[in-house]
Amino acid sequence: MEHGTAVSVVTAGGEKFAVRKARREDVPALVALLADDPLGSGRETAPPEAYLSAFEAVDASDEQLLVCLTTASGEVVGTLQLTFIRGLSRGGALRGQIEAVRVHREYRSNGLGRLFVGWAVEECRRRGCVLVQLTSDRSRGDAHRFYERLGFVDSHGGFKLPLDP
Amino acid sequence: MEHGTAVSVVTAGGEKFAVRKARREDVPALVALLADDPLGSGRETAPPEAYLSAFEAVDASDEQLLVCLTTASGEVVGTLQLTFIRGLSRGGALRGQIEAVRVHREYRSNGLGRLFVGWAVEECRRRGCVLVQLTSDRSRGDAHRFYERLGFVDSHGGFKLPLDP
């Protein structure tokens, strides 16, 4: 995945899907997925250049991996971002963090989300992470059950402090 | 702070403390702080080289900032790590993440921790973050009240999945 060429394949509901590194031309589809969400709909109103500029920064970083989930015909139907965080704690461990998970509403409830996040966990393991972490808004009860079924433990409070622009 | 030269000063209980980027020679003191903790004590048993190697990776990254809190005489009495995460969501926003906060037990309860985390929030603001986030183990009730007094909202579940080595 580091070079943007490798593709992983997951099969859900008899259909094949690919997971690959996001490309610049995917950005509009990715933003549409982020916006098609009860919490995201009100906050994805920035001009296209803001998203392209953010994409360039993420794409250039060795510590970030933004991926697309696509159908066999290449339609982007999911996304998530991994951040690999080295720290001193836990013996100088690497941890993987999952952010901004979205699966298109027409592709939910057939196990695809589970396979997609499972792919992300395996990618973290492959890179040597000792832990995978994420936070999920408490208003997303379904998401919480989803992560618990994947083996995640809701052991921490997830604290956020918005900063005024 | 980017070049490891700038120092911020905070005053607590009539005493002056400095916040500066961590240096390689600080690593043993930082690991001692991480280990002097109910949750950290059992998990900081790696050989010194593991911590030095992790320090080099953190120090080399533009997306990481590991800092020391020191007394006027230079003793290291606190640490935290900031990670700056660019993403597509929220208009291509940058978010700041705080991890591995520790203040030496003899220096707690005089407002120093509050000033130290307040410094971290201001550093995130200075770099253009729209949000600061952290997770805190639910067993740390005092820490939760501490972050809430600083304005953080415990709005998310913090999910963790340990990976087998």
From TrEMBL, chains A, B:
Among the GO molecular function terms of this UniProt record, one is: acyltransferase activity
Instruction: Spell out the SUPFAM superfamilies in the cross-references.
Output: Acyl-CoA N-acyltransferases (Nat)
Domain named N-acetyltransferase: residues: 17-165
Superkingdom as given in the UniProt entry: Bacteria
An example Pfam family from this entry, by short name, is: Acetyltransf_1
Entry's transmembrane regions: none
**Keywords in UniProt for this one?**
Acyltransferase, Transferase
EC number(s)? 2.3.-.-
Q: Can you name this protein? A: GNAT family N-acetyltransferase
